[in-house]
Amino acid sequence: MKTALLLLALALSLAPAAQAIDTTAFQSAFGILQKARSGDSAAADASVAAFEQLLRQDPGNPLLHAYLGSSATLQGSHALLPWNKMKYTEDGLAEIDKALRLLGPQHDQQNLRGVPISLETRLVAASTFLALPGLFKRSTVGHQQLQALLTHPELATSPEGFRRSVVDLALKTARREQLPTARITAIGLLASGSETERRAAQTQLKEIWQ
Questions:
Q1: Which of 38, 40, 146, 198 lies most in the core, judged by the most C-beta atoms within 10 Å?
Q2: Would you say the pTM of this structure is higher than 0.85?
Q3: Rounded distance, CA 85 to CA 137, Å?
Q4: 176: exposed, middle or buried (C-beta count within 10 Å: 0-12, 13-18, 19+)?
Q5: Can you give the residue ranges of every domain in the chain?
Q6: Cα separation, 82 vs 133, whole angstroms
């Protein structure tokens, strides 16, 4: 037993430590991104620069890649020339694809603002993919990421504001796709119900977008 504990301690000491995000810099970058989402084209460029700076400090962080990708797709939406629209959007989607590839079990345990990095990364991916025109062929992956969010065990105990963001996206998608009323009701419980109700709702939603 003693030998096993020593080996475990050695393994943990040799494992790469997760790089902590500079929360002040992240909040600043996120605020710029929110301006870009509200239609400020200059903010889209500034948001890309801000998340690129954060990634230089923590290049393996999937959430930063996801937000950089989201920022770049906003650059695409604001661009005037068609080829720039495509380039910025494709560059952004490549970053989000990379973010999803980087996700591992450890990101369920690493939190930012009380939310697991894995969940917020998936929310950025789902919301970006589902907002794109069909020519970018990301709808299927967007649905998969939204499904993963709705049924993720950590969602039931995530902060209310984050759950509301997930639910708002899911409700918008469900209504657009005319899902049955019972499914829409179950989605709503994820934001406003008790934890027991939220867990029960997740069980009902296991195959909503499979």
A1: 146
A2: yes
A3: 16
A4: exposed
A5: 24-102, 120-210
A6: 14
